[in-house]
Amino acid sequence: MDYLKLAREIMYNENQKIVIVNNNNIIYKNDGFGIKPLYCAYMKIKDQMKGTSCADRVIGKAAAWIYKEAGIKELYCDVITTRAKNLLLDSEIEVVFVEEVDYIENRDKTGMCPVETLAKDETDFDNLLKNIEKFLIEKNLM
Question: Is 101 helix (H, G, I), strand (E, B) or coil?
Answer without folding.
Answer: strand
